């Protein structure tokens, strides 16, 4: 048992390489009129020396991942065979998964895996979690070095209720390890993730990202994520993560992605006027 735990720890550490060099510091002025917002941001060139950090970022503070966890969750569903591909469909059962008042209309219907990822449909991934099971989650997240890798027994909400927690630095390390093929993920599963997460394109590059948001705990307000990566034709990919707080969800909704794009542009990683979708 002790040997297994030791090996798991070594594997997790392998998924969290130190930055190749001290990151270049990005000024808060890059956020424009929103420079005063509490934002933490890190980007790292995968397999290259580049790294960029927003000044005064709390890179090691742990947060609930919310729907940014759909990145590993989608991969686990595919790698386990629970979902064959992005077209894997599930029926919404309103008796078992009753709609909450805040649910958007798009959640209140049947979904495919690809649609559920793009729509951030919570019930779909909760249903998946019941099939994946606690033991598989614990083993996989520990092997991948994903945050604290903590999963409550039998829970289908552990990425929403504060049990599972992850930092900005750990989000970037996980994505970098994934893109470097160090997690043992099949190429077809990574290709499916790239298709589901495509969020913008320009000549020679594509943006892949996933949002996440929920109530701030403790305290009032909300917290949110935008995590993802850039694929570049003529340079290594770049993994990035942004975390922020706001008074409410409305103040988060567009800001997360917009702020990440501003910072990626300030780092010279996106062209001016990069398309929004």
What does this structure look like?
- This protein is of the alpha+beta class and 277 residues long.
- The protein has a single domain (2-266), classed as Beta-lactamase.
- The protein is built from nine helices and nine strands.
- It has helices at residues 2-14, 70-80, 113-119, 122-132, 134-144, 168-179, 187-197, 250-253, 255-266, and strands at residues 24-26, 39-45, 51-54, 89-90, 111-112, 198-202, 205-215, 222-232, 238-246.
- The strands form two sheets. The protein has a seven-stranded mixed beta sheet with strand order 1-3-2-9-8-7-6, sandwiched between helices. A two-stranded antiparallel ribbon has the order 4-5.
- It is globular and about 50 Å long.
- It starts with a helix and ends in an 11-residue tail after the last helix.
- This is Class D beta-lactamase.
Features:
Beta-lactamase; Class D beta-lactamase; 277 residues; 33% helix; alpha+beta; 9 helices
CATH topology: Beta-lactamase
The tally of beta strands, per DSSP, is 9
The major sheet is characterized as: 7 strands, mixed
Output the radius of gyration: 18 Å
Helix content: 25-40%
**What's the domain count?**
1
From the coordinates shown, what is the CATH architecture? 3-Layer(aba) Sandwich
Low-confidence stretches: 1-19
SSE order = HEEEHEEHHHHHEEEEHH
- The residue-averaged pLDDT reads 93
Distance from first to last alpha carbon: 49 Å
Assigned CATH superfamily: DD-peptidase/beta-lactamase superfamily
SS-based class = alpha+beta
User: Based on CA inertia axes, which overall geometry fits?
Assistant: globular
Keywords: Signal
Signal peptide: 1-20
Protein name: Class D beta-lactamase
Pfam families: Transpeptidase
């Amino acid at each position: 048992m002790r040997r297994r735990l030791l090996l798991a720890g070594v594997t997790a550490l392998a998924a969290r390489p130190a930055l190749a060099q001290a990151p270049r510091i990005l000024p808060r002025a890059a956020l424009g009129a929103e420079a005063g917002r509490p934002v933490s941001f890190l980007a790292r060139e995968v397999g290259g020396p580049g790294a960029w950090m927003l000044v005064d970022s709390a890179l090691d503070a742990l947060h609930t991942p919310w729907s940014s966890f759909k990145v590993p969750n989608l991969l686990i569903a595919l790698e386990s065979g629970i979902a064959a591909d992005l077209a894997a469909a599930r029926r919404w059962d309103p008796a078992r998964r009753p709609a909450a008042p805040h649910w958007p209309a798009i959640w209140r219907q049947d979904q495919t895996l690809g649609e559920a990822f793009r729509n951030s449909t919570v019930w779909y991934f909760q249903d998946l979690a019941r099939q994946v099971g606690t033991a598989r989650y614990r083993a996989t997240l520990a092997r991948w070095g994903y945050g604290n890798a903590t999963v409550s027994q039998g829970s289908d909400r552990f990425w929403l209720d504060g049990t599972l927690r992850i930092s900005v630095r750990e989000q970037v390390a996980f994505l970098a390890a994934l893109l470097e093929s160090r997690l043992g993920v099949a190429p077809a599963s990574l290709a499916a993730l790239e298709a589901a997460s495509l969020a913008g394109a320009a000549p020679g590059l594509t943006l892949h990202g996933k949002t996440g948001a929920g109530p701030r705990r403790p305290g009032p307000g909300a917290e949110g994520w935008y995590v993802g990566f850039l694929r570049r034709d003529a340079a290594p990919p770049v993994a990035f993560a942004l975390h922020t707080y706001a008074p409410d969800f409305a103040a988060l909704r567009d800001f997360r992605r917009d702020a990440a794009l501003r910072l990626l542009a300030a780092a010279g990683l996106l062209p001016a006027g990069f398309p929004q979708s």
